[in-house]
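[audit] Reproducing an earlier prediction to check determinism. Same input, same settings, fresh worker. If the tokens differ from the archived copy the diff job will pick it up downstream; this log only records the rerun itself.
[audit] input (272 residues):
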Amino acid sequence: MNSFFSLADKVALVTGALGLLGRQHCDALAQAGAHIFVTDIDQEGCDAFARDLATEYHITALGCAMDITDEKSLCSVRDTMQKQFGRINILVNNAAVNDKAEQRSGKVDYTSLEFFPLQLWKQSLEVNVTGIFLCCRIFGALMVENGSGSIINVASTYGMVAPDQSLYVRPDGTRMMFKSPAYPTTKGAVLALTKYLAAYWGSKGVRVNALSPGGVENGQEEFFIDNYSAKTPLQRMAHPNDYKGAIVFLASDASQYMTGANLVVDGGWTIW
């Protein structure tokens, strides 16, 4: 059974690799034996994290500054990958713009629908949808050439159900924020794109699946953690490492007959 989950000598690229979940995705893939391209917008940070992965897991890890909305940036990393390995086996499209509860300063106007800036709407579409499309097109083409590959598009429970705006209301009645319309819209688009690509590339040996995580505890205000946990059957928010098994599963031969699917790992959030 272990051989089904092994990623030994596979080559993986993770976008948004320096983020909370991006680091966990990289760690999981490296632990399973994959060589990792650590990509994000910060070259120095990517290099440092890649060194840590290589040292801990005795794999090859390369840090690459990459803007997923810039075709030239993506092609440059693709060329580096071809020169180094001649292939890519796994692509994890993790990078995204997300209005997070732990990043709010208390102002709510621009997060509400009526005042949500068009610029932020366009930025979310550019990163969360166009960026994933470009990554799939450029790196997926290499998979097609090699006749195999696994693409994992990180979506969200909010691509499936509407945000519960009551989560962001403090016990005293004040509101921390609204979840914006952009995030669920773009994550819904990711699910649709995943199905399209799975159908388009199925005959080429390239599998395309989505992972829809639930909310991750990360220093949010206590009331928010309590609100979220109370609406989750498992009675807690996710820990950052709760998605490592799902990533390895989707990347490996353990899911070899799975494509076009949305793997929901949310503590039961979407069952009611």
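[audit] rerun output stored. Observation attached for the diff report: DSSP finds eight helices and seven strands in the chain.
[audit] end
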